């Protein structure tokens, strides 16, 4: 459907590339679709030597971060049109699934503070990093979604101002900065924080190295809670 229908309608280049952060990724992995016994590890691929047929799974992802909180005088309201300058007009006929999820989890147990419109087709609950999350789901394949209008502009509004203008700190977050200069003293420092009171989480760190820095693996140091954690 290209940019004619479906979620790809929102992918307007000048809006994406002027955001605070964007990342595109392509993931390809083999998946066993026929064997005497099925065993597929969570990291992808397969270990079953008796696999009879192999399929290749292609997954494309686009991650975008819009910072309307700092640019909109501290307002947390947003909409699809405000972010992408476009709205959803129709679903792609080739898609077997096409859904929009909106995180409406209450941060301080006051559910009446936020409101999403139009009303979602369903509500989904899940546990993410030990916290219970609530999502408003908009199913683009639902006939009732485009009945009243040929345009879907999902909006989230706060019914009254927040007591605090500070954004909540996520459980896992990271900071990175470049220090020094040149090949001798130049360095990249990455700080990873876990603010959960008692739980530990596995972390996969993918670093994008600036073109002006050359890394030497033998100088890599990892420090956890003040103690050196030697990398393998």
Automatic annotation (TrEMBL):
Q: Name one Pfam family in it.
A: Gpi16
Q: Give the signal peptide range.
A: none
InterPro entries of this UniProt entry? PIG-T (IPR007245)
Q: Which GO terms describe its biological process?
A: attachment of GPI anchor to protein
Q: Which GO terms describe its cellular component?
A: GPI-anchor transamidase complex
- Domain of life of the native organism: Eukaryota
Q: What is this protein called?
A: PIGT transamidase
